[in-house]
Design a protein that fits this description.
Number of domains: 1
Helix content: over 70%
Shape: elongated
Number of strands: 0
Structural class: mainly alpha
Number of helices: 2
Strand content: under 5%
Order of helices and strands: HH
Largest sheet: none
Length: 49
């Protein structure tokens, strides 16, 4: 796999995650710390791959 397609996969995954976060934001406005936690989990998950 080339670096470019890997980067594209990561971008797609991030876009998908952002959509999920936005959906949750509309469900519950008080998501502040939870969103940060989700982003942290996602970053560490990407790091392990």
């Amino acid at each position: 796999m080339s670096g470019r397609s890997l980067r594209r996969e990561a971008t797609l995954a991030k876009v998908r995650l952002d959509a999920d976060v936005r959906r949750q934001l509309s469900l519950r406005p008080q998501i502040g710390p939870t969103k940060q936690h989700a982003l942290h989990l996602w970053r560490t998950g990407m790091g392990h791959r």
